[in-house]
Amino acid sequence: MRNLKEPLVDQHPQPDWIGEALAIELATPAAGTLQRRLYAALRRWVQQGRLPGGSRLPSSRWLARQLGLGRNTVLGAIDRLVAEGFLETRHGAGTFVAELAHLASLSETLPTQPAVLSSRGERTLASCRLPDSASGAFAPGVPALELFPRVAWRRLIQRHLREAPMEWLDYQAQGGVEELREAICHYVRLSRSVDCSPRQVLVVNGAQQAFESIARLLADSGDRAWMEEPGYVGAQAALAAAELDVAPVPVDAQGLDPSRAPRDRAPRLIYVTPSHQYPCGVTLSLERRLELLALAERHAAWIIEDDYDSEFRYRAQPIASLQGLADSQRVLYVGTFSKSLYPGLRLGYLILPNSLVEPFRRVQARLYREGHYPIQAALAEFIATGHFARHVKRMREVYRRRQALLRETLAPAVARGLALSPGESGMHLLARLPPGIDEQALMKKGAQHGMTLRPLSRHYLGEPATAGLVLGYAGATDDEIRRAGALLRGWLLPLFDA
Ligand SMILES: Cc1ncc(COP(=O)(O)O)c(C=O)c1O
């Protein structure tokens, strides 16, 4: 198999591109003769590494014609660079950039200027922690990628790419491929009791884009947004990037507790994960659901219902979505294929109240542009022909087993007081640790053994109320869970002896 780290194509620029770059350079007004400027530009590019060693230059005849210069002018510049050792001529093959070993280290040591961002840019950057390298046991949120039916998926994509209508090469503005919107609508209506028609479905590049659009379109900067505390960092970042006044609202065993929200102003947006709170794993109680719906009506606020992993339920009867619970037009339901299929697909959906369909579609078509319609069509067929349901059903069994294995491995620590979240659904467990435990030290120890141990403190906007680890089990094989789980158990047990 091809090593993905190797460049797919030769890194040397096409000779024609060098001609075009030189034409742009010479078209810019500057002092000096044309020969001198040609020489200086080529020398600078070689020194900067923009023209890597081994790159072939176009012929002097071609360059002269392309640049509208006399051939002698071009030859004068090239001869000088050859004489200085920046270029070399190879008999019968042309002129090439010389391989100068010290240049690479020179360009690497050039001082880089600190980025100058706007103050909004700085604030956005501060809210965007670089995603951890999430691999191995127990990276949260990663599905069992090795079990994804790649062959069937590839066949579908190939066929849809081959058969795509010509219009799909152009810009699109339908809110997503019609068949996919229909398939999503059918699916969420049946499995999540979401109340919608295909028109209300907007296909987006993952849940993250839905959060961004919602924050941009439904709140003004400085407006209050309620965020579950602890909560999902992606949603925290989207709300902060929209310059909202994000108020963390504590989560308890019944989910987000509105009675503990700051009382000074009403929220404009309320972000919740009602089916499976991320990362605590609890379900928002019916009483709280009704309270939130009433509150949203009273304050003309919008509820963002993030239903990211509800495909994976293991015990209780499925809980209906918040969106479908009441005749409310104040809930925006967000779903994603990142967990049920794979995160790199970057496909999700937003189910909008009727009044918001046109504004959201228009903004999406203008700000983000729609595309990848053949992939969307392939996904529609993947769903319609039962591949999706089969894969989810199979993963449900695999994840149920993996969770049981993790519980079994950690059982001795649980017997001593380690508290694990309910785990009735989803792809991770939250392990609560005794107060004062150094999560960072555990995280580092894990990293030394190829494990991802995500500290709970990462999910707090304010002071963390408790210490813990978010343990993803879905993407770890049985062997990995046994091996890494045993190590983790060994590190946790002494913490409960004290
Ligand atoms: C709570 C929550 N919501 C949504 C997502 C999915 O986001 P996206 O569709 O942008 O991949 C995740 C993924 O980790 C998540 O944990």
From TrEMBL:
Q: Which family does it belong to?
A: In the C-terminal section; belongs to the class-I pyridoxal-phosphate-dependent aminotransferase family.
| Positions of the HTH gntR-type domain | 32-100
Q: InterPro entries, alphabetically?
A: Aminotransferase_I/II_large, HTH_trans_reg/aminotransferase, PyrdxlP-dep_Trfase, PyrdxlP-dep_Trfase_major, Tscrpt_reg_HTH_GntR, WH-like_DNA-bd_sf, WH_DNA-bd_sf
Taxonomic superkingdom: Bacteria
Record carries keyword Transcription regulation: yes
Annotated organism of origin: Modicisalibacter muralis
One Pfam family in the UniProt entry: GntR
Keywords in alphabetical order, please: DNA-binding, Pyridoxal phosphate, Transcription, Transcription regulation
In its UniProt entry, what is this protein called?
Transcriptional regulator, GntR family
SUPFAM superfamilies linked = PLP-dependent transferases, Winged helix' DNA-binding domain
Any GO molecular function:
DNA binding
